[in-house]
Amino acid sequence: MRCPRHDVVDVGTRGPCPGRVQMLQDVPMHAWMGSLPEEVRSLRSISELALPCCHNAGALAVKCIPRRTLAGFVGEALADVWIVEALASPIARRAAVCQALPVDLQLRAGVRVLDFRIGVHLEEFHICHGVVCDLFLRQALHQVGTFLAASQDEVVVVLIKADWEHRADFEPLEEDLSVCDVWRKLQDLIVEVLGDFLRDQADERDQLALSLRDLVATGQRALVLVQAPPEVELCRVLHMSSANLRSSWRDDTKTVGDMIVVLSEWQAAGLLSPKLGQLRLLEVALPGTPCALASAAQEAFCDFIGDGPLAVGVNLDFPSPETLRWIVGKNWEKR
């Protein structure tokens, strides 16, 4: 089964949130932050907005299945047989592919948080999701930079984590983690591509707490959080930590029902309310076959939130244009 590419223009009335979407016809989705009321831009931080996020943002196509990953399913001997990977690729694709649109079109459709999982393949950083995806991290970051250069009032949050099947790529090569070569190369790549949109010094007083207007005024329009060991010295990007990122993801969340249980627990604990300086992400993404489960997950999420407020991030697989517009529209509602 192939998920259709979503039309980023036609939001229509069909989809996961029928009859509920705030159309805001005069608000262009590629520039919705710049269209926010001035009191919202001047008073709310990026951590206090309803933010659409793409889960495994660059996972659009499979390049290859790493031998170590394949060996975990078929054994060491069969992992070396080329036809085994060929036969496994369609199965891997159903589990690995989480998005239909490339990064630049995700941003133009309204997404403002990009969740990248990475690994090293042939000495290059690739987007990965168990498998190696057919997209270099460099290419993905260039698409972010191109979008920001053309969109002067928009801010994008970039989350970079080692993919679980590729964590060995980021193990320290020497005792001093601060000079570990792979982390240095990763940071150099981020600064090389997005340096025009990063502060000269990454300010640990928390850029996620600055107002949207202040971020734009100071040129800090790319907020990059990297899940690196705390000993690794980062400059111009931020360490991802429990202080600045909290996610509703749980390994045992497998079904829409499981997801709603977690969201209900978050609601009861007050975690659906924003926290200054901490990006809170509701995980509206399910493992297994993202293409098949995405629509039901989004519909259940819309039903759960209903007409209530929303001022946190929402992590989505295959987001429909209507769901994106509905989430963005929450930023125009009174609290």
UniProtKB/TrEMBL annotation:
GO MF term (any one): phosphoric diester hydrolase activity
Single biological process term from Gene Ontology: lipid metabolic process
Highest taxon of the lineage: Eukaryota
InterPro entries: PI-PLC_domain, PLC-like_Pdiesterase_TIM-brl
SUPFAM superfamilies: PLC-like phosphodiesterases (SSF51695)
Name the UniProt record assigns to this protein: Phosphatidylinositol-specific phospholipase C X domain-containing protein
Organism: Polarella glacialis
UniProt lineage: Eukaryota, Sar, Alveolata, Dinophyceae, Suessiales
